[in-house]
Structure formats: structure tokens, C-alpha cells
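Pinned message: reference record for Sensor histidine kinase
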Amino acid sequence: MGDGEIEREAAGLTGLRRYTWWTVPGMAACVLAFFVGEWVLDGDVPLWARAPAAAALVVEVWASVALLSRRLVLLPVTDARPGGPPVGLLTTAVGAGVVLAALPLALRNYGLWAVTPALVVAIVATYLQPRRRRLLIGVAVVLALLPGGVVSLAEGDGESAYAALFPAGLVAFTAWVTLGPLWAWDTARRLDEARRLEAELAVREERLRFAADLHDIQGHHLQVIALKSELAQRLVERDPARAAAEMKEIRQLSADALSDTRAVVRGYRRTTLDDEIGNATRVLAAAGIDARMTLDPDAVAADLADSARHLLGLVMREATTNVLRHSRAGRAEVDYRIADGHARLRVRNDGAEEHPAALDGTGLRGLAERLEAAGGELNWRHDGDRFVVEAELPTCASGAPRSPGSPEASGAPEPSASHDSPEAAHSPNPVDGAPR
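Predicted structure (C-alpha cells):
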């Protein structure tokens, strides 16, 4: 870590998507506007050709950008998942392309007539399966040899080689520079999707592990409690003393089951601010949100109580969840620092909903009560289209847990008075000492 502020940019796929858009749709629009537009504005070109070419150029630019932009939104096309371009847009692009090819070819401009058809072929190819894509490009390269070559031979201008070969090479080159960035984009999206699936599987496995642990503990205790309850019921009239002993054991087993359950929940729910900030960076990046983390080195190195780090970690987790579920955020900012004897955490994001559903639940309100009990506070507010969550906890001992095993230290709920029996308070180790 440096001496100044630490800023971590996690842009996810946003930067690559922006680059791909400028590389593919942006390049297509620039090429058409520069080469064809220059020809349209040339005073030597007859007016009968310039007027329809100008109209066709506007239509072609619009259709090409729309088709390529839509292609960036769609899932990658594979052999197992075929796709297709919008028929209306494609028809419009082909029609305008025919006009922009026929007019320059009629005026024997052998270098310009193939620009628009080559772009249309590349656009259609981006929507096809790989095998059909290669077939389309190969056929287009071969067919591109004919129009210019035939016109040149008919005119006898001696440019038949250039008229035939240049359009064919232009078709191949245009397909290459169009499909290359899209291939990289598709690959990046597949990797990002695989990463998200891996994260979801990890969460599900952890939930299954927790469910299995809880089932093992409660299932064992409940089975023993049921058997002993049945035995005590049978002994009530025949042997009251033994029945009382069995009921006492049932009470002890109930206290052990409660302790074991709390131990499992405590281990499952435990979290820290450091872990949650790192997790938020990865999750927000995976969602395509630009995340800026500003961490005060003094705050990172501060000897903050475990309970305070746990509570701030819960705030970080809840704020990240709200960004993902209740906003259309494109940017999020996290600021954590120590000031005036307090640890301050602020999470701000744009794209906030006007009436976020998060405020209808108990997440932030429940955390606000817990921070208030620890001597801190939690506030949230709207700031235009931004939503801001601010948490503050004292760094002194007032925010420390009452004892190493207290509910405040573990994050587990406070036990009710009905379970605080003398037997439970003096029972053996609730995990290892429970009957098996």
C-alpha cells in the first residue's frame, strides 16, 4: 500500500464493451461517412448519382450501427445456439448497400463500389453460426471478383485485375476487422458468464453445507428428544422419579441443540469488512459496474474491534446487495476511513430507483439498530439519482464485544429468557459434548 489514498478501478466488461462498440459500429459508421461521403460530396460526380447516394448513405449508416449494436447485446452465437439478425434492419441495410454499390460501379469507381457490400456481408456474418459464417465470407469473396472485372472488361479500360481483386480483398479484410473484435467480446462474455456461474455454484455449495450441518445437528437432537419424551410419557405413572430424570435430560438436550445451532449459525454468518470490500469489488465488476474503492491506509491498519469490523462488513454486504438489486448503477464508490475516533464507511452509487425496494425491508433498518446498540449510527439518503449509505462506529472499546462468545461478537441473535436455564449456562461443550 502507498502512503496516499488507494483507489481500485474495477470496470468489468464495461471498458471492453465500450472499446468494442467504437471499434465495430463506430468504425463502420466512420468508414461509410469518410469514403462514401467524400464521393457523394465530390463535384465531379453527376447529380443524378449524388442525390440517391446521399440518401442511401444515411440509411446505411443508421442500419449498420443498429445491427452491430444489437449484436453486442445478444449472447454469443455458437453451433448450439444459432442466431439471426433482425429481418427489417437487414433488408434496409441490403437495399441501401445495393444503391451504394451500383452507383459507383456505374461510374467505374472500382475501389469504392465494394465498400458497402463488404460491410453488409460482415454484419450478416456476425449473426451466423461459425460454419455458415465461413461459407458466406468465402462465397462473397469469390462473387466480389465478378462485378468490377466484368465492367472493366466491357469498358476495355485495362483495369480488370484491379477491378476484380481489390473488391475481393476488401470483403475479406472487412470481415476480418469486424469479426475479430466481436470474437474477443464474445470470449470475454463467456468467461464472465462462467465466472458468475462459478460464484453461484460456490454460494449454493456453501448453502448446502450449512443446511447439511444444521440437519445433522438438529436431526440428531430432535430424534433423541422425541425418543426420551416418549419414554418419559410412559414412565410418568409407573416411575415418576425416572420420568422426571428423563424430562431433565430432555431439557438439557434442548439447551444443547440450541447451543449447537447457534454455533453453526455463528460460523456461517461471520463476516469482516476487509472480506466484504474485496468481495464487493469482484461482484460489482462482474455486474459491469465501475467500482472505485478509496481506503484510508490508517483505517486499514487500525486495530478495530472484531465486532465493529463484523458490523461494518454487514453494512458493506447489504449496500452491495442494494446496488445490484435495486438500481441500474453504472458507477459505485466506496470510501472507508478513520476520523475523530470513528470508523466511517460510505457507499454511494448512481442509477438509484426513486423508491428503492430495499427501504421496504428490514436490511438497513435492522443494521441501523445494531449499529446504534454498538454506539454508532447508520444513515441512508437519496442525492439526486444517487443513493448513499453511511455507517459510523467508534474505534474505542465501546464498540467491542461484551465477551468473546457473546451474541454481539458473533452476529447471532440474542437468546430469549426462556432458554437461559442454569443447565444451559453450565452445560458442557455444546458441540463436542452433545449426545451422539
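Pinned by admin. Summary line: The domain at 273-410 is CATH 3.30.565.10 (Heat Shock Protein 90).
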